[in-house]
Every structure is written in structure tokens, then in C-alpha cells.
Sequence to fold (549 residues):
Amino acid sequence: MNYPVTELSSWHALANHAPILKKSVLRDLFFDYPERGHWFAAHGAGLYLDYSKNAVNEETIRLLIQLAEERFLPQRRAAMFSGEIVNLSEERAALHTALRAPRDAMILAEGRNVVPGIHAMLDRMREFSEQVRNGTWTGASGKPIRHIVHIGIGGSYLGPEMAYQALRSFRQKGLDVRFVANVDGAAFIEATETIDPAETLFIVCSETFTTPETMANARAARQWIVTALGEQAVSRHFVAMSTNADAIREFGIASEQTFGFWNWVGGRYSMESAIGLSTMIAIGPAHFEQLLQGFRAMDEHFLHAPMEENLPILMGLLSIWNNNFLGADTLAILPYAHELRRLPAYLQQLHMESNGKCVGEHGESLTHQTCPIVWGEPGTDAQHSFYQLLHQGTRQIACDLIGFCEPLSGLAEHHDQLMANLFAQAEALAFGKSAEDLRTEGVSEKTIPHQVCPGNRSSNVILAEALTPYTLGSLVALYEHSVFVQGAIWGVDSFDQWGVQLGKALAQRILPALSANKMNFNLHDSSTQGLLNRYLRHKMSTVESGEER
Ligand SMILES: O=P(O)(O)OC[C@H]1O[C@H](O)[C@H](O)[C@@H](O)[C@@H]1O
Fold:
């Protein structure tokens, strides 16, 4: 397993095969094989994946599957699902799939079945959610809760916010959820300035319960409640999610209002754990169960579908192909659904924290490219900003276009227009527009070079019937497993994130100097010191002149 992927025979074969596909034109591939759109497609767990507009042929898929086998993907997949230690650097299992396992499943972590604990937690979440939703959980002054403020960052925030937006039409009316992640005080102020503390419940989410941003916002929230309602109100207005029960107790939140989870669930894989309490309160336990079923259905598909029909395996392998062999080192996530506008941000963390690594899981330096840069915006908005570069820029950019057959709004005509754009964009990316086409249309010779769209831009289209809790669960699990597949091929530890520690540590070193207005202590390089001095000079001058806002 510790063998560099670049030395495998399938990797060499793919490298030799790539120039043929680089030279091929998608137009010709479709011309030579008119049924291509039908055959280069797969479906499972409510999702349809059309990958025919990637620069691949049957030989490419065969070699990619060979690569997965040579990389022991089926064995690695089994190891993850069965609770083996797959996060080697932290010596942990990665058992997010257990979070959605059925009640009667048995999954062992360190010799103990984790499923009963997960369902006990889900039962408590259900009970609490119902109380908040039906008004029997009241604030300290007896008023029902109308506002939830979810405090957390990274994996303790991006999933819940994405799901809250995505499942807008399933939310309970009269109960809103706001999110505070950034340590910029503006985020807290914006979330709380128009709401009544007596009707507000804070959900503090942090796996470690030590993350400085989350702790600063939680302290601000505590102060906000205490100022308005008194110290005794804290217990009615706070709940917390963490693996660190001691830290929660120290913060002053009682164990009855604490929902734990486990260190074998990584933050970016935790939106269906207790971290999803705000989602459950917003959409209700029944819809949350459908979300879990969607996750579960994709887990089953990933486990059992043959590789050539397996959506996460195909997507993961295509990403490797586009990135490592065709040079498309960024991936644009383009949801054609207003409700999925936070999906690109969610998928950025999922991909880039998981696979943005330059060492392999055994500490060896890697010589091949790993995670693509993930970015994106919803269509059609993005068509009017960066699609110019997708169509005519100098780079190859892999695109995932995601759409739904049914509208969520009552505006059916809008939906046809939205989906027409999705289908058209995938077509335009693949086939472009040639000089001959333009000439036939009578375009002047002078502007032809500017109007030519070269085409041959790879894209996947993911289509589902409707954006429901089930579909969302399935979609998220599809990407989780695709990321796992890519990490397994590259040989990285997809479940640690050591790279985020350094900046955090340096910030903690700088903070005391800023708080104490201390200048010129030359602990830093000239650039950092210059910036600190400039910041402090301005801070001190505004304090002295009383100009502070
Ligand atoms: O949930 P927490 O412990 O507060 O961590 C929040 C986030 O911060 C860390 O720095 C990591 O980058 C993320 O993986 C994590 O999700």
C-alpha cells in the first residue's frame, strides 16, 4: 500500500493514454459514438450522473478502475466503513458513515459497537427539537424560542448553514436560524441586532470546544443573554455540541443541554451528527431522518455498486483524470439552485482540508498533484461573472453542474429557464463554437477569433428529481466518498488537517501584543512587525483622540 501511486502500471498507462484524449475533441467523440451520452452515465441513491462530457473513452475508464484496484480501493473502503484506523496521523477511525447507520447495525470502534450511542443521541436531539418547535422549550422569561443562533466555524458551521439554505422549503415558519462563524464582531452583531434575547437560543458547536473564534463568539453570546436576562437565564438559552464535555461544563452549560459526539467524526464530516441540531430544529426530525436516509442510500451504493456504475468512484476517478493527467487543477462547483448557494463553500472545506496535502499518509513527500482547488457559485449568477474564463480562458477547469427537475418555488417558468441554462452551459463547454460555425452565420472575419469558443471543457452534470432532504444527504455523501476515493488514490490521510494549526498558533502569539498595545518588540520578521506597528499606531491614535467607533 505504501507504494507511490506514480509507479503503478495503471498510472503509467494513464499517462501514456492522456495525450490521445488531450488531442481528441468532444465533438468527435460524440460523432464517433452517438450513444455516448447514454453510456457514460450512471445513477444511484436518487442521483443521475452524466459524465459523457469529460474527455474520456472506454479505455480511460478501464484504466482508472485498474488504478483504483491497484490502489486497493475496495479494501480501503471496507476499512473505513468497519471502523479501522484510517486516519493514521491522528490514529483514529473515520466513522461518519456510522452516523447514518440503521438502529440495528453493528459497527465497532475500538472494540465497541458505536451505533446504540449514535441513536441515543439522535433520540435526544429529536426530543429537544420537538420541544423547541412546539414551543414547550421556552426561554427564561417563558417566551417560546423564535430565533436560533448557531455558533461554530469550519466543519462545525459550513454543513449546517449549507443545509439550512438548501432545505428552505422544509423549514418551520416563524423559527429562523442565524449563523455566527467569523471572529469579526460584525458577524455576531449582524446576527443578533434585531432579535429579542428572550426568544433566542444559542447552539454552540465545536468539536474541540477550544476553537478561539467559536469561544469568543460564545462568550459574547453569554454576555448578551446575561445583560438582558440575568445569569440564571443561561441554562434556558444555551445548548452545546462537542466531544469535550469538561470544557462545556466549565463554560457553564449543563450536561442535560450538551449533545456529544465522538473524535472519530471529523468536523467536515459531521453535519448529520449533533452538529446538525440546528438543521433538525429547522426542518423537523422527520425530514432530518430523510436526510439520513439519503446519506445511507449513497453509502450503500458506494459499498455495493460495481465500480463502473459507482457514482462516488466514477466522480473521484474522473477528478484524478482531469487533475493529474489533463491538467485541470481546479474544480468549479456550479449548482443551478439558489438554495445550494453555500454548497461550493461547504465542498471547499470537504475537498481541500481532506486532500490538500503534500505528504502521503506515511509521511513521505509526494511528487504528484493532489487536491484540486475547489470554488464556485450558483448558476445562473456565475454565468454573468466568471463563465467567460470557463469558455475562453487559457486554463482547463473541470466543472460539476448540479440541477433538479422540479422547481422548489411556485415559479415554474423560472425553473425551465434555469435548467435551460444548465443544459446549455454543459453543451457550450463541451462543444464550443468553431470559426466555421461563425463564418456560416456571417460573422465578420475580424471578430471571429474573439467569438470562437474552443469547447472541450470537461464537465459532469448531476441531475436529481427534486432538492429534498433525501437528495441533499445523497449528494453530500456522494462528494464525501468521491473525496475519499481521491485521497486513497493519492495516498494521503484525508481525515487530518495539520496545516491549519500553524496560523492559529501564530495568531495566539500575536494577540497579546495587540491587546496590550505593545509595539517594537521585534519578535517577528520586518514585514510582520511593520504591519503590526502600523495597526497599533492607528489603534493607539484613535484611542487617544477618542475617535473609536
Ligand atoms: O469544531 P471545532 O473543534 O471548533 O473546529 C472547527 C474547525 O476548525 C479547525 O481549525 C479545522 O480547520 C476544521 O477542521 C474544524 O472544523
